[in-house]
Amino acid sequence: FSSGVGLLALIWVMVSLAFLGWLYPVVAWGVLALFLAFGGLPLWRFLRQNAPGAAGWLAEIRWPIRILLIVGLFYALGYLVSGLPPSLDGDSLHGYLLLPREYARQHLLVVVDYAYGYYYPQNAQLLGALGFLLQGEALAVTLVSFAMGILSGMVVYAIGRTYFGKEAGLIGAVVFYGMFAVGFINGGAKVDLTWAFFDLLGIFAFSRWFFGKERLRRWLALAGLFVGAGLAVKYSSFYTIVALGMALLVGSAWRRRTTVKELLTNILAFSAPISLGALWMVRTYLLTGNPVYPMFNSLILGNSAGEIGANQYDNYLLFPRILWDMSMSWIAGGMGKPVGPILLGTIPLLLLFRAVNWRVKWILLFALITGSVWFLGVQRPRHILSTLALLSAVSGYAIVLLLQYRRPLGLTLVVLVIAALGMNWVIWARNSLPVPDSIAYAAGMETREQFLDAQLGEYFWYPDNDIRYYIRDKLPLDARLVGVPSSGAAYYIDRPIYGRLLRTGVSTQETLCDLKAHDISYMWVNFDIMDHINALNPTEKQPAYWPQDAEFRLAYLPELYSNGRQSIYQVRYPDALDCSNVQLRTWYP
Question: Is the dihedral of CA 113, 117, 123, 124 positive or negative?
Answer without folding.
Answer: negative
